[in-house]
């Protein structure tokens, strides 16, 4: 597929200043006013590209991972970095927290960009079919930005008109109205006008719009303002995604994380990245997930930091509960998602016994330096056996904020040097495996555990150890919401959905208290939404209402 990066800086009026062409050459657009430029066909095309750019500051960045991974049942904090307030739910999680403010500002900039494109498109003389296609893309993106706002902050400001100049007035509109006035009609328009495929990889398609509308309706189905048909409509939409567009699950779950296999048959919608642009810093973002889920391997015997093993920022580590979720005798997903062996990348001399440390034989480059057996295998490694090995074995009783099973889904060995923070991986927003699990959830919402089990089994069968397909299957009696959330953890861990999954289903407080000791003392019912940013409160004439539970 042709790949394109939609990277455009945000400037005056929330509109375009420059964009990147297919050949990755930049075109600077600064010698025309935004108003006049947007009335041209090329101006509209560039404006649409600009609307995609507001996905990048959140997804694949520390902000996105901190706000969606911390403070859940399956992830807790590692040793380093800030923003641990999202894990601890302490008084630092307040209206002044920088990621709270940045996410709100980024999404509303995206919304205003979309509003500007939609409103100004009326004055653009171009083929109407092509114009409707581009407006459908922008309405898809506006719906996505609004969906992120309401699922993060709850009731929020609603505007479908472009904001120009300084604004000191804002409304706090009920989520129900944002769904009915923006999210749902925008996605219905997108479904009616988007094509099944696009030549530029990363553009919205009809399948992506159906996926997002299905997720929005499924999310609304848990609320007090749900429509009685939400879960049924969601099931139909996910069925369309599964059946109508030629997507197919990869045979091997591990192949999803092969960096040479992006753009595969399972991808519904991604935020695309380009190696050339992230390596040259034309794109200031890229995918940084390779930094955040790694233990401190680089100061251990026989090891130094390199691109193959990653730059370990030690932000997120698995909870003890998460490590119980996979039966590794029948399920390949833990072994495909986590790293087990680090091979020496420097020579080490033999050592003599000292204190509690046993003597160690010399290590040569390529020898095993660190081994983590992982869940279910630790019992095979008593200390007496560990002491006979030249390498370090890390078992569960030795896990800490610095040493823990490291997720390898996002490792990027293609970076030009070991310090480079931007990676070339695409960020996966929608994939087929998730569509099956979301349809299972929609079916469970309709009291159809049998149908839910069928969908879950499709995902489990793909993940089965060869010869264990029958053992991997479940029945309707196995399925409830907690089982489904466990299955989402097994399939989607580290992909950036967990906080939203738990908040959506009303399980955030219960499961986090049960399984995350760092979060348990402080998490309260009101933490299912984030605080309204202080900047929004301060800049609104007469103030802006804070979400309940947080200090005004």
How much is the radius of gyration in Å? 24 Å
Number of helices: 19
How big a fraction of the residues is strand?
Answer: 5-15%
Outline: globular
Number of strands: 13
**How would a crystallographer describe the biggest sheet?**
3 strands, mixed
Head-to-tail CA distance between termini: 49 Å
Poorly predicted segments: 1-33
Helix content: 25-40%
Structural class per helix/strand content? mainly alpha
Describe the strand arrangement of the main beta sheet, using strand numbers. 9-10-11
Mean pLDDT: 92
Can you give a write-up of this model?
The chain is mainly α. Helices cover 38% and strands 7% of the residues. The chain contains 19 helices and 13 strands. The protein has helices spanning 34-37, 41-52, 62-69, 85-88, 98-120, 128-153, 175-193, 206-220, 230-244, 275-280, 333-337, 383-386, 432-445, 449-463, 469-472, 481-492, 498-505, 508-515, 534-539; strands at residues 2-3, 18-20, 26-28, 75-77, 200-201, 267-271, 316-318, 338-339, 341-343, 368-371, 392-393, 406-407, 427-431. The strands form six sheets. It has a three-stranded mixed beta sheet with strand order 9-10-11, with no helix packed on it. A two-stranded parallel sheet has the order 1-5. Helix 12 (383-386) links the parallel strand 10 and strand 11. The longest helix is centred in the first third of the chain and has 26 residues, at 128-153. The model is unreliable at 1-33 (pLDDT under 50).
